Amino acid sequence: MKRIARRMGRRAGIAAGITSLVVPMTIALGTAPAQAASCNVTTGPYQKQVEKFLGRPVDGRQSLADCQAIQAFQAKHGITPTMGYAGPVTWRTMNTMLQQRAAGTTPNRAGTCPTNRGRIACVDLTRQLSWIQDGSRLKYGPVPVRTGKDGTETRTGSKKIYWRNINHWSTLYHVSMPYAQFFDGGQAFHSTTKSMWNPPGSGGCVNMRPADAKAYWNLLRNGDDVFVYGRKPGT
C-alpha cells in the first residue's frame, strides 16, 4: 500500500509540473491572435506621411509600434475602423491639422474673407478653420471646426446670423446644439463634444468645441455677417 501511495504521489507531481508548463503557453498562444486581429500590420498608402506626422521613424514600413500609434490617433478622433492602418481618411485628417497649424495667427492671409464689412465670422471649409475678424483685424481664432459631410455640405457664400438659441434642441437630429447661431436655414454654429477631426463630418452645421462656441456666442449678434468658402476635403 505504501508503494502504491508513493507511485500515485510521483504521478501527481509529474502531472502538476506538466500543467505548470502548459498553461502559460496556452495563454500566450491564446492572446497572440487577438493582438494581431486588433492591429493592422499592413503598410498603408500614406505610411511615410503618417509616420512623420506622429514622430515615428520614417521608413515607410508598418511596424507594431507604428500600428499602435496610428490606432491611438484614430481612437482619439473617432476614425473607423480603428485598426492602425495608414489609409486615406487618417492621412486626410492629419493633413488638415497640418494646414490648420500653418495658418497660425494670419488665417486670412490670402484675403478671401471680406475685410470691408466690419465684424464677420469666416469659415474656411478647405482647412476646416473659422475665426472672427473686424475689418482686417483678427478678433478670435482661428479655431478648428467640423463642417458638413459629403451630401450635407455646409453651404458656401455670404450669410447673416438671423436667430440664436443658447440651449437649442434639434428636432431633426434629436441632439443638443448649445450656443446655436443660425446663419443659413438649419445650418448654424454650435458646440459639440465630438472631436473636430471626427469624420465624415456634420449634417451641415459648423461644429465647434464648447469654449469656442461660447466665445462666438459672446462676440456675435443677430445681423452679423458670416462668410463660408472653400471645399471640405472628402466632399
Automatic annotation (TrEMBL):
CDD domains referenced in this protein's UniProt entry, alphabetically: YkuD_like
Keywords, alphabetical: Cell shape, Cell wall biogenesis/degradation, Peptidoglycan synthesis, Signal, Transferase
Which residue range or ranges hold the L,D-TPase catalytic domain?
118-229
Pathway membership of this protein?
A: Cell wall biogenesis; peptidoglycan biosynthesis
**Domain of life here?**
Bacteria
InterPro entries in UniProt? LD-transpeptidase, LD_TPept_cat_dom, PGBD-like_sf, PGBDSf, Transpep_catalytic_dom
Q: SUPFAM superfamilies attached here?
A: L,D-transpeptidase catalytic domain-like, PGBD-like
Q: Which GO terms describe its molecular function?
A: peptidoglycan L,D-transpeptidase activity; transferase activity
**GO cellular component, as recorded:** extracellular region
BP term (GO), one: cell wall organization
Catalytic residues, chain numbering: H190 (proton donor/acceptor), C205 (nucleophile)
Q: What is the protein's given name?
A: L,D-TPase catalytic domain-containing protein
